[in-house]
Specification:
single chain; mainly beta; Glucose Permease (Domain IIA); eight-stranded antiparallel beta sheet; about 35% strand; elongated
């Protein structure tokens, strides 16, 4: 479960806050180039400024299946809290997206497991690139169905995101973003970027969530659905590294070769904090 944050904990990058009002919202359109924030098949229309009883709708709802990947629409600084993310863009704009997934797959349990809500390699205040995986579509909060509620802010305040979304570049998969991407594995090897979730030093069992994989050609695949993997570290590897000290929100690079049904680890690069 994700603990609630205090406002002060957001530091220089607190979430943008839209007006809660029944008065008409600013009518100006957001005119900027973005990457469309939801990957793959979606359904949406301009429902900005619609009356919702006691308030006006402050963004556009992008409907998609639960666990559909959500990506950063532009380069900038990433912020997050339970069910929501935002980006302070290098272009002077801000975005906010909410109703991220808070359920275990196939359920409506509201467990708020961060591995099913956010990318495992992002913490508040990190820099993100346009098209980078940030989280997953859900129906958290008061959502009536799975969708991403998406808002855009200029330097003057809230703007209708419809025009930017209409011209947004659509992706079929998040763009590659891994550390040391040039350090591809040797021939007939693979590289997994894995965030630690458990470590048993006595047995060398390492359990984590897969963020990305890289092949010996240099090709990178970002994992778009959380997948958990287990590796067995040899005594030699245990003597060379200390997974107990690794942060959970930074990925280690595990290089390995497949030998029949067995996996032989050839190198481990600890995560950079």
């Amino acid at each position: 479960m994700i603990a609630a944050q205090t406002w002060a904990s957001y530091g220089k990058f607190p979430p943008p806050v839209a007006p809660y009002t029944n008065a008409p919202l600013p009518t100006g359109m957001a005119e900027l180039k973005i990457i469309f924030p939801v990957v793959g098949q979606v359904d949406w229309r301009d429902n900005y400024n619609e009356g919702r009883g006691s308030f006006r709708h402050t963004g556009v709802d992008i409907r998609a299946r639960k666990m559909t990947p959500v990506v950063a629409p532009f380069d900038g600084v990433f912020g997050k809290k339970v069910n929501s993310f935002w980006v302070y863009g290098d272009n002077g704009w801000k975005c906010l997206g909410t109703h991220l997934n808070n359920d275990s797959p196939g359920t409506n349990d509201n467990q708020s497991d961060p591995d099913y809500m956010f990318s495992p390699v992002l913490r508040h205040g990190d820099r993100v690139k346009a098209g980078q995986l940030v989280g997953y579509v859900g129906d958290s909060g008061k959502a009536t169905g799975p969708h991403l509620h998406f808002e855009l802010y200029s330097g003057e305040g809230l703007r209708n995101p419809t025009k930017a979304l209409q011209g947004g570049r659509k992706l079929i998969t998040p763009l590659s973003e891994i550390p040391r991407q040039e350090d591809k594995p040797d021939a007939k090897q693979e590289r997994f970027e894995v965030c630690k979730r458990n470590w048993v030093a006595e047995t060398g069992a390492f359990y984590g969530v897969l963020h990305a994989k890289q092949f010996d050609t240099g090709r990178v695949l970002i994992n778009t659905v959380p997948r958990f993997v287990t590796f067995k570290f040899s005594k030699e590897l245990i003597n060379l590294t200390d997974p107990a000290a690794w942060p959970n929100d930074r990925s280690a690079s595990i290089y390995f070769a497949r030998e029949g049904e067995e996996v032989r680890i050839v190198k481990v690069v600890p995560p950079a904090d």
